[in-house]
Design goal:
With 406 residues, the chain is α/β, with parallel strands linked by helices. The chain is 37% helix and 20% strand. It has helices at 88-95, 100-105, 110-119, 122-138, 154-170, 193-211, 228-240, 256-263, 276-283, 293-299, 306-312, 332-343, 347-354, 356-361, 387-391, and strands spanning 3-12, 30-38, 44-49, 60-63, 69-72, 74-76, 141-147, 174-182, 216-220, 244-249, 267-270, 288-291, 316-318, 378-381, 400-402. The strands form two sheets. The chain has an eight-stranded parallel sheet with strand order 6-7-8-9-10-11-12-13. Strands 1, 2, 3, 4, 5, 14 and 15 form a seven-stranded mixed sheet that branches. β11, α9 (276-283) and β12 (288-291) form a beta-alpha-beta unit. α5 packs parallel to α6 and α12 (332-343) packs antiparallel against α13. The chain binds zinc ion (ZN). Zinc ion binds next to loops.
Length: 406
């Protein structure tokens, strides 16, 4: 069934742009008064002037009335949207200046989410995940990575990953799951960090493979979680088992992105504390530099060195880090707009970071640009010019979102 949608005031295709390095808005391809034709598999066939299509060639014509700017659906390559409970109390303590350790002592932090996530049923976790994914979808996010890592024992990590898998069946967004059992060593594990990682490697990862629950493994590399040696050991072993690798790197101290590059990770994520040395390392590698402005906003800390990363030639992806603790907002568009203003990014760099460059972090090269053969994952904003989208700093919402042309 062939379908035609249009006319759009503008289609911002993001086609033809490089995966790495700085971008200028002059490089953007903009097609005015355009139509988009979509094939029976939900892929884009052609984008050109709406009036040059022959309407009789299509099984369905979806007419757009009034003005509208079409851009690719966003790809959020780093979230933790499967969790039980909330951490509003932590947040209030943190913004009032209470140190992290004091909050943890008062029963807050990841251990709090862990208790509530362990207590939730698989069905409950599935439902909250679907509801958050659908909110994201209504805001133009058509592909969403979702991490486990709030259960931190074998059975409950499997429960989280099963909940994410069944959530994927119930939302129209694509969910990509990642095992983050190496988020931190749970307080009730009696043994060293290395022994905990060995248990994950020996028991959990084979079970994940067997049930086909995920093909991605992540670790929180930080002195307070898993150090550089432990991370390098764990990731190399996970890679041997056939998992793709991603790393929570350089959030509070450096070391993580070096591990990520050395192990050949798809992405190094966070990077708030990266120095010129890590910037160069990432720029010279194939590892995507994923930044999470929502975490800077949630923790009141500096943004990652995005301008430097782009100028050095890195592939910069922007994701929400949506989670109950440090990044509760979960709004990619607002965060991308604010990051652009703070880090002096072009509109092209922000949109590339939230679309095809973040798709690269998930190794999904079939989406994030509007061109022949790519998925018709698209969103339309009620405006005449693409620059109005970031200009409104998140307050202009998409009025239509398509997943595979539907
Ligand atoms: Zn995270």
């Amino acid at each position: 069934m062939k379908k035609l949608i249009g006319p759009f005031s503008q289609v911002l295709t993001l086609a033809g742009l490089p995966l790495k390095g700085a971008l200028e808005d002059e490089q953007l391809e903009i097609i005015e008064n355009a139509g988009v034709s979509i094939d029976e598999n939900g892929n884009i066939d052609e984008i050109k002037s709406f009036t040059s299509f022959v309407l009789a060639d299509f099984d369905e014509v979806e007419q757009i009335k009034g003005e509208g700017v079409l851009i690719p659906g966003f790809v959020d390559c780093h979230t933790h949207i499967c969790w039980g409970g909330n951490r509003a109390r932590d947040y209030a303590m943190r913004v009032a200046g209470k140190p992290y350790l004091e909050i943890a002592k008062a029963g807050g932090g990841i251990q709090d989410s862990m208790r509530k996530t362990r207590a939730a049923s698989e069905e409950e976790l599935k439902e909250v995940t679907v509801s958050r994914a659908n909110r994201h979808l209504s805001r133009g996010v058509t592909t969403i990575e979702v991490k486990s890592g709030y259960a931190l024992d074998i059975d409950n990590e499997l429960k989280m990953l099963r909940a994410i898998k069944s959530a994927d069946q119930e939302t129209k967004a694509d969910l990509v799951s990642t095992c983050l059992a190496a988020h931190m060593k749970p307080k009730d594990f009696e043994g060293t960090s290395k022994e905990y990682l060995d248990r994950v490697l020996g028991v959990l990862l084979p079970a994940i493979k067997k049930e086909n629950l995920s093909d991605r493994v992540d670790i929180f590399t930080e002195e307070t979680a898993f150090n550089v040696e432990e991370s390098a050991y764990y990731l190399a072993k996970a890679k041997e088992q056939g998992f793709e690798i991603t790393v929570h790197a350089d959030q509070f101290s450096t070391g993580g992105s070096k591990v990520a590059v050395e192990v050949g990770a798809l992405s190094a994520e966070h990077l708030e504390s990266s120095t010129d040395e890590e910037v160069k390392l990432l720029a010279d590698s194939d590892t995507v530099a994923t930044v999470l402005p929502g975490a800077s906003l949630g923790l009141g800390m500096q943004y990652p060195p995005c301008r430097k990363l782009l100028d050095a030639g890195a592939c910069l992806a922007i994701a929400s880090d949506w989670n109950p603790g440090s990044a509760p907002m979960g709004d990619m568009l607002t965060q991308g707009a604010l990051l652009g203003a703070m880090e002096k990014l072009s509109t092209a760099e922000v949109f590339a970071g939230m679309t095809f460059r973040s798709a690269k972090a998930l190794n999904l090269m079939d989406r994030g640009q509007l061109e022949k053969g790519k998925l018709a994952d698209m969103q339309m904003y009620p405006c005449e010019d693409y620059r109005e989208i970031l200009y409104n700093q998140g307050m202009l919402a998409p009025t239509r979102v398509w997943k595979k042309g539907k």
